[in-house]
Amino acid sequence: EAGVAQSPRYKIIEKRQSVAFWCNPISGHATLYWYQQILGQGPKLLIQFQNNGVVDDSQLPKDRFSAERLKGVDSTLKIQPAKLEDSAVYLCASSLRTSGQGEQYFGPGTRLTVT
Amino acid sequence: AQTVTQSQPEMSVQEAETVTLSCTYDTSENNYYLFWYKQPPSRQMILVIRQEAYKQQNATENRFSVNFQKAAKSFSLKISDSQLGDTAMYFCAFMKHVVRSNFGNEKLTFGTGTRLTIIP
């Protein structure tokens, strides 16, 4: 079974530029999560999708971050414009709709550096 | 809101020894799950072990076991016979119990992690 795929693995941009990250969850996983992991901290949930609907985006900085999951499978997270404090690893995770036990499967992450 | 605290930023232990990582949490929930996740250097995060709060028996997975103290809100991870491959960041995480009708609404709250190094 293929795991959660993310691309790119690394990205370096200048502040005020735009960037987009892509995630492909495990086949059949209806729930998809984007986390931000700043160096030295644990992952923090940015947004959670159930199929193509948003379940929780309370911690997403909506003035600069956006995310979509148009067909309930792949997802894209965008930052526009980027700030220095957005430097972090962006993790995508997915879980089964009917798990109810919170087991989330994580992708390798995208390491973003904003200069 | 729930909080998870890991008070040991870094630990190291000799190979084959036993090490215990600490985690405390704060919640007003009665039903919930606790997890330990492992994040090896430059590799993706994987689940190590899960504990349901309603179960009194401590979870075990091969060399990994937990000491779950619900009243004290403590959830430590013990790694026995440590191996070089255990070198990683370890994160403690909390999730509220989700009723069946609301499956798909799980949200993990993570601690800040403990960097564990196994010394050859």
Can you describe what's shown?
The complex is a heterodimer of chains A (115) and B (120). Chain A is mainly beta. Helices cover 0% and strands 48% of the residues of chain A. In chain A, strands 2, 4, 5, 6, 9, 10 and 11 form a seven-stranded mixed β-sheet that branches. In chain A, strand 4 and strand 5 (44-50) form a beta hairpin. The radius of gyration of chain A is 13 Å and the shape is globular. Chain B contains no helices and twelve strands. The chains are: A mainly beta (115), B mainly beta (120). Chain A binds chain B through residues 3-4, 30-31, 40-45, 48, 50, 55-56, 91, 95, 97-104, 106-109, and chain B through 4, 33, 35, 37, 43-47, 50, 52, 91, 93, 95, 98-100, 103-108, 110-113.
Tell me the structural class of chain B: mainly beta
Residue share in helix of chain B:
under 10%
DSSP helical segment count of chain A: 0
Q: What is the helix/strand order of chain A?
A: EEEEEEEEEEE
pLDDT averaged over residues of chain B: 91
SSE layout:
The complex is a heterodimer of chains A (115) and B (120).
Chain A: E1 5-7, E2 10-13, E3 19-24, E4 31-37, E5 44-50, E6 53-56, E7 65-68, E8 75-79, E9 88-95, E10 105-106, E11 110-114
Parallel strand pairs in A: 2-11
Antiparallel strand pairs in A: 1-3, 3-8, 4-5, 4-9, 5-6, 7-8, 9-10, 9-11
Chain B: E1 3-5, E2 10-14, E3 19-21, E4 24-26, E5 32-39, E6 46-52, E7 60-61, E8 64-69, E9 74-79, E10 88-96, E11 109-110, E12 114-119
Parallel strand pairs in B: 2-12
Antiparallel strand pairs in B: 1-4, 3-9, 5-6, 5-10, 7-8, 8-9, 10-11, 10-12
